[in-house]
Specification:
There is one protein chain. This protein has 365 residues and is of the alpha/beta class. It has ten helices and 15 strands. The protein has two domains: 2-122, Rossmann fold (3-Layer(aba) Sandwich), CATH 3.40.50.720; 126-303 and 335-363, Dihydrodipicolinate Reductase, domain 2. It has helices at 11-22, 38-48, 57-64, 78-87, 102-115, 129-139, 168-171, 175-191, 313-326, 336-355; strands spanning 2-7, 28-34, 53-54, 68-71, 91-95, 119-122, 146-154, 196-204, 243-250, 254-261, 269-276, 280-283, 287-289, 294-296, 359-360. The strands form two sheets. The chain has a nine-stranded mixed beta sheet with strand order 14-13-12-11-7-10-9-8-15. It has a six-stranded parallel beta sheet with strand order 3-2-1-4-5-6, sandwiched between helices. Strand 1, helix 1 and strand 2 (28-34) form a beta-alpha-beta unit. Helix 1 (11-22) packs across helix 9, helix 4 (78-87) packs parallel to helix 5 and helix 8 (175-191) crosses helix 10. The radius of gyration is 20 Å and the shape is globular.
Length: 365
């Protein structure tokens, strides 16, 4: 059994990580939680019956010697806690995005490798039934060579008014690194290994200052209706994007176009398209298009959601994968090279948006 500690006691720790670990009681024991806000740590420990809580992560790591640490703090603090956990002998599961800096992401993976530790990004949205089924179709070669993809992840009104998602120095960005990163990761995973050449992107915050940031907590990502946050939202602090759009060029003239938003005057949308020289695929419908026919695929029972009653089923499936990895039954699904590609694209995107021009990978390599 692996001892688990959790750093950061907000919504994603309480509603996703802790329940997912608790679902595997023979594989994981949560030995402690930590938050710089001691009240949050104490309340989380009491809520879930966890024996130990701390406000100092280093003290927790030294006192409990966990095997695995879940890092659930805001984006701009991921790096320091990843380093701390690895230096104290733990493997790490870190919430997305691992880093908004490609250079830092490379350094973190190099550190993990040098210490013989596992570092895994919590890209839990690969595990939707349509995406798992699509991966199987792609691996059979049915699309041929994939040369184009696109995704849209749009909330009509869903700006998080809890936590610090709207503050750049804490979150590192807005909609793109919050909800867009899941779609980006899924599409990079589905398309397969490709080297990034350049990224062009734009950001806007047209609606964030209009007084209607969110329809509900669930619409802004707090799917259980609880945020576990005491922060009071202030529109004056909002300095990130509520809408992002861009284009990514890969070697071999492969391209991804995308748009993502917390708030936009369009319908809610979560979609992925993949274009190959043999066929194309559209998700979530799992429609296949060829020169001769259009087919809607059935999602077999092998790809159905095994956790339909959970708000964050992908976390359960990701932690199942980690448990199977520790047991020698599976390899990790989220691989370092894929996460490094995602981090590079994030880095390039924000540089492009600020500079007002396309940014080449060679500029950050």
């Amino acid at each position: 059994m692996k001892k688990v500690a959790i750093i950061g006691c907000g919504m994603i720790a309480n509603a996703a990580h802790i329940p997912a670990y608790r679902h595997r009681p023979d594989d994981f024991e949560i030995v402690g939680v930590c938050d710089v806000n001691e009240k949050s740590a104490k309340e989380t420990a009491q809520r879930h019956g966890i024996a130990n809580y701390f406000s100092d992560a280093e003290k927790m790591l030294k006192a409990l010697s966990p095997d695995l640490v879940s890092i659930c703090v805001p984006n701009m603090f991921h790096g320091e806690y990843i380093r701390l956990a690895i230096d104290n002998g733990a493997d790490v599961l870190c919430e997305k995005p691992l880093s908004v800096s490609y250079k830092e992401a490379k350094e973190l993976y190099a550190l993990a490798e040098s210490k013989g530790r596992i570092l895994c990004a919590c890209q839990s949205m690969r595990f939707t039934p349509d995406r798992l089924a699509a991966k199987a179709i792609i691996e059979k070669g049915e699309l041929g060579e994939i040369y184009y993809g696109e995704f849209a992840r749009l909330r009509r009104r869903g700006i998080p008014t809890w936590g610090a998602f709207h503050i750049e120095k804490i979150n590192g960005g807005g909609a793109f690194v919050d909800i867009g990163v899941h779609m980006l990761d899924a599409l990079v995973w589905l398309m397969g290994p490709s080297r990034v050449v350049s990224v062009s992107g734009t950001t806007n915050a047209k609606i964030a200052h209009g007084g209607t940031p969110s329809a509900s907590l669930a619409a802004s990502g707090a799917l259980t209706g609880e945020t576990f946050s005491e922060r009071v939202y202030s529109e004056d602090e909002f300095d990130v994007e509520d809408f992002a759009a861009g284009s990514i060029l890969f070697e071999g003239d492969k391209r991804i176009n995308f748009k993502t938003a917390w708030a936009v005057n369009l319908p809610d949308e979560t979609s992925i398209s993949l274009v190959g020289d043999a066929a194309s695929l559209r998700l979530p419908e799992l429609d296949t298009f060829t020169a001769s026919e259009n087919v809607r695929r059935d999602i077999s029972s092998a790809y159905e959601n095994p956790y339909p009653s959970e708000a964050f089923p992908g976390h359960f499936q990701l932690i199942d994968n980690i448990a199977d990895f520790y047991a020698g039954k599976a390899s990790l699904i989220v691989k370092p090279e894929e996460t490094l590609t995602v981090c590079a694209i994030i880095d390039l995107f924000y540089r492009s948006a600020k500079a007002g021009r396309e940014i080449n990978f060679s500029e950050i390599e």
